[in-house]
């Protein structure tokens, strides 16, 4: 079983009960969870002062070799405040010498994309301690796909999507759309040519999602990709003012502007049920017009000394 090291680079974990449940669930499944003090640490709305949270990220370069998984407690806001002081040079050298499995999503996307841009480090966009492992009922799909991604050198996720048929291969990258947008024009946004961009978000109505995607389009980022995959965009309620303008209408409008295929329907993001994707891994996408299959490879996996 695995040694899991917790990190909290973003917001204070307001749901302490969920975090405790997540730790208990992982321990009951035979895993050891360390650095648990990150869960209760607090400064204002953050999971500790900037210096505390920064030190926790920089210390990933010196974690003991028996550490198997680095797991974010939750998202929120705070990772962006750390980027300019993260020692990416030291982290990159350490992670190249001994790759680690680093997992999280939401606000943590800022650090994940920074690691990919500055170090070429592959991390996993997937479940976090409080929101996923600490859910009242652990989603079996999420649990299974998490351990599959972390243990299999090549794995495939499939989902229904009625977009046009497409075949594409390239670097899989992305994560939370708002965080990706916040990095545009900075050194922490990877420059990916011919990639497969996968994005998700929460509490963003379709017009805001369109506005963010158009920013990537106007910046020339979308045209450099081979495919765009839209994950979960939940939490926003349509209003009378929208007058039929919904997520599907937004997607179709975007597709008309782009020559790059735009798929949708991937269970990925701020949902109880989510796949885990290695950001920076190689992906092969095959879509027949009804079902999409994305095969991923080249990512770090758990060592054989820690069978699931």
* Unreliable spans: none
Question: Strand arrangement, largest sheet?
Answer: 6-13-12-7-8-9-10
Biggest sheet architecture: 7 strands, mixed
Count all strands and give the number.
Answer: 13
Write down the secondary-structure element order: EHEHHEHEHEHHEEHEHEHEEEE
Q: Can you tell me the overall shape?
A: globular
Distance between the termini: 6 Å
Mean pLDDT: 96
Structural class: alpha/beta
Question: How much is the radius of gyration in Å?
Answer: 19 Å
Structure description:
- It contains ten helices and 13 strands.
- With 308 residues, it is of the alpha/beta class.
- The strands form two sheets. Strands 6-13-12-7-8-9-10 form a seven-stranded mixed sheet. Strands 2-1-3-4-5-11 form a six-stranded mixed sheet.
- The N and C termini lie close together (6 Å).
What keyword list fits this structure?
308 residues, alpha/beta, 6-stranded mixed beta sheet, 13 strands
TL;DR of this structure?
The chain is of the alpha/beta class and 308 residues long.
List the helices and strands and how they pair.
Elements: E1 3-7, H1 16-28, E2 32-34, H2 37-40, H3 50-58, E3 69-72, H4 88-97, E4 101-104, H5 109-119, E5 123-125, H6 129-133, H7 140-151, E6 154-160, E7 166-176, H8 177-182, E8 196-202, H9 206-218, E9 227-234, H10 247-257, E10 262-263, E11 277-279, E12 282-287, E13 291-297
Parallel strand pairs: 1-2, 1-3, 3-4, 4-5, 7-8, 8-9, 9-10
Antiparallel strand pairs: 5-11, 6-13, 7-12, 12-13
Helix pairs in contact: 4-5, 9-10
């Amino acid at each position: 079983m695995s040694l899991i090291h917790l990190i909290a680079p973003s917001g204070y974990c307001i749901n302490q009960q969920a975090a405790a449940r997540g730790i208990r669930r992982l321990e009951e499944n035979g895993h050891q969870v360390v650095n648990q003090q990150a869960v209760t640490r607090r400064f204002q709305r953050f999971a500790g002062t900037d210096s505390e949270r920064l030190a926790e990220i920089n210390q990933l370069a010196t974690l003991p070799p028996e550490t198997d998984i680095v797991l974010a407690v939750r998202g929120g806001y705070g990772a962006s405040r750390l980027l300019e002081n993260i020692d990416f040079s030291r982290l990159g050298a350490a992670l190249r010498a001994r790759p680690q499995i680093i997992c999280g999503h939401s606000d943590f996307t800022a650090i994940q994309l920074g690691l990919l841009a500055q170090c070429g480090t592959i991390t996993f966009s997937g479940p976090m301690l409080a929101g996923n492992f600490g859910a009242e009922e652990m989603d079996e799909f999420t649990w299974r796909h998490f351990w599959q991604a972390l243990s299999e050198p090549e794995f495939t996720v499939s989902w229904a999507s009625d977009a046009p048929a497409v075949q594409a291969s390239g670097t899989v990258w992305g994560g939370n759309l708002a965080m990706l947008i916040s990095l545009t024009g900075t050194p922490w946004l990877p420059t990916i040519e011919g990639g497969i961009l996968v994005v998700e978000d929460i509490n963003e109505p379709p017009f805001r999602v369109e506005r963010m995607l158009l920013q990537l389009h106007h910046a020339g980022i979308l045209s450099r990709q081979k495919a765009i995959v839209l994950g979960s965009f939940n939490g926003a309620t349509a209003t009378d003012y929208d007058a039929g303008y919904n997520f599907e209408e937004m997607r179709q409008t975007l597709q008309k502007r782009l020559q790059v295929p735009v798929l949708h329907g991937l269970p990925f993001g701020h949902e109880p049920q989510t796949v885990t994707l290695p950001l920076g891994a190689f992906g092969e996408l095959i879509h027949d017009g009804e079902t999409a299959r994305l095969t991923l490879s080249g990512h770090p996996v758990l060592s054989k000394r820690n069978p699931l």
